[in-house]
Amino acid sequence: MVPVAASRDAGSAPPPSLAPAAGGRQRRALPALPGRRGKEEGAEREERSGAAGAPWCRAGCASPAMAPGVCGTLLGLALYASSLSALSGATFLYHDYCVIGAGPAGLQAAYFLQQAGRDYIVFERSHAPGSFFALYPRHRKLISINKQYTGKSNSEFNLRHDWNSLLSHDRRLLFRRYSRDFFPDADTMVRYLEDFASLLKLRVQYNTAIIHVTLEKSEQAWNGHYFLLTDQDRKNYKCSSLLVAAGMWVPNVVNFPGSEYVEGYETVSINPEDFAGQTVLILGRGNSAFETAENILGVTNFIHMVSRSRVRLSWATHYVGDLRAINNGLLDTYQLKSLDGLLEGDLEDLAIVKDKKGKLHITLQFYLENRNISMGIDSITLPQDELDNFATRAPYDRVIRCLGWKFDFSIYNRSLRMMPGKGNIKKYPQIKPSYESRGTRGLFVLGTASHSVDFRKSAGGFIHGFRYTTRAVHRLLENRHHGVPWPSTVYPITQLTNSIIKRVNEASGLYQMFSVLADIILLRENATAFEYLEEYPIGVLAELEMQTGRKARNGLFVIVMEYGRNFSGADKDVFYYNRAVGEAQHAWQSNFLHPVIYYYKHLPTEREMRVRPPDWPLPRPNAIHHIVEDFLTDWTAPNAHILPLRRFLENCLSTDLRNFFAESCFLFAFTHQKLPPSCQQGYIRMQGLVGSQELRHHAVQAGLLQDYAHTDFSGDRPPDSHDGSQDQLMRDHGIPVRPLQHLVNAKDEL
């Protein structure tokens, strides 16, 4: 009997001792030591298997060419059927957190867990991290931008235009240090991820394919159950929380008569010469389809592309997953009538018939009713037999499927209730806005597979988006399991305007995950101070107190970034004249990405979140303010941006947020029943700006002080000398009292 390693969380008891594994071999439960089960053990297992390239497919597969998804499914079912009776006596290696997948999301989660000192392990099926990028995109050009220069040195701001770097404290791990290409090579991403894992000493167990996951009920577990994982070598693992970061790697396949003649994106040749003089049909309308077309555009007779949906251009939809300009050469040749073309049609209605010369003819399934396709093309009616100008009447040499990817549900036991979504998100698992599975508590989906939360809306399916949602999930887990509240900073209320302006001008998480992540400002009693929380998922705003450990008793502001409501869409003309708004009074009509501030007197309820209009990110607030869009995305203009924001905040709080000089506060003390917060927190407490030569110079130029420099700084004493007490300083630099009437008009002060 070997006890497994106990959880370090005081709120959970260690799992009970477990019996030896089937076969009589004792398996020692390892403590959470950095690098204990890393590349060394992975290399040893790889050497034993003799199949480094596909460790998940080493047993139970009839053919090496079998698709990995099918192979994994068969192997998982076989293992599950043969080991049901043995699980009760198996030894499980325990970790608090298990992460499936060492792609960008898995490594990002590992980084945050390691920084927090948590017990975790990452399982990676390949011999190195980022195995997806080792294969895809097939033509090796990423469409995630890598902007070298922004004109600014602020690292947080620069991440707005760096779509490849993961978050870390190590400045060496910025992607611009790996490539200077605006659209970098995928091989560079593989090298970057390898360095990220090795330099940060993340605990990744390579050559370990998790092929079955189930639950074990236990009152001792954090979530009422443990997650039991089995790998391809029949080793067993147990964890309290499961983070699934395995990505989307199972090809989407549409089955129809003749689909066996279709080549897949994952296997088709990438050598353009193989397509010279050929006629090609591509099924699909996404970036992989246009990437494939771009590669062979100059050597084919012509290319046709068919899909159910119309072309969606990313600059029109403002969704980075739609067609990017780098791949849209086919649109030019189509619209300029250079033989290539685009068609719309339901792929499930198609059929392909192969003639004696090997040419592929496109027809419709209803033409094949009551006919045997194997009898040959002569016995089959083709559309052009009835409609002689049928669009796809010319035969094709090749048909290529480029339909994207879907999540692999095959390894999850029914007890986990990992169900696919509905409609256009059926390729993703069902999860909550907190990225937790709808079926199982404690199971979180990270990375590309979590994109159902913001599909076709924001950037949650891409590195520059899910690096922030992964951090948000980590903060939720820290509060839930370890009693560590969501990070926050408390400021005096006088810093409210400045805090908002700073964040909307710098924050990358708000900028990339617009309408999904928000900054939350929790007001303290009597609005004398506020607590600032960064990048919280607004989909679970009603659960804020439970999820963060912070209290929202006195109202709150929610800061998000949004596009105009009617500015994004495949059918929108985003280049129309006068498309931008420049006047602050029309800020609510802003089209481009801009900050929006929602004010709530009380935290919205779950019902209010549930019944809000589907295109609203939040329920109706008590007040709302749009900061007018800016061509430079620089919201620092005093009159257009800052002044309207400050007045909005003042109206919500019924207070004056301006900063005043001591002389003004002195006057207000005699003329106002309630002093402005800056006077209460500064002048009354004898606090304020420390005088300096530069400040005095500006005050003299503004006419607020007399020029006393020639009398104050005499002899050899330096002007900024602060020797002696503050009282002595005041005696040495006496400031004559000036008339106060010119300060009465407080509206002239910012």
Automatic annotation (TrEMBL):
Entries under InterPro entries matching the protein: Auxin_biosynth/cation_transpt (IPR050982), FAD/NAD-bd_sf (IPR036188)
Give the start-end ranges of region Disordered: 1-49, 710-730
Pfam families according to UniProt: Pyr_redox_3 (PF13738)
Please give the cofactor(s) recorded in the UniProt entry for this protein: FAD
* Origin: domain of life: Eukaryota
Which intervals carry biased composition (Basic and acidic residues)?
37-49
Q: Describe the family membership recorded for this protein in Swiss-Prot or TrEMBL.
A: Belongs to the FOXRED2 family.
Describe its function: Probable flavoprotein which may function in endoplasmic reticulum associated degradation (ERAD). May bind non-native proteins in the endoplasmic reticulum and target them to the ubiquitination machinery for subsequent degradation.
**What's the protein name?**
FAD-dependent oxidoreductase domain-containing protein 2
Q: Identify the species of origin.
A: Taeniopygia guttata
Q: Highest lineage ranks of the organism?
A: Eukaryota, Metazoa, Chordata, Craniata, Vertebrata
Q: Gene behind this chain? A: FOXRED2
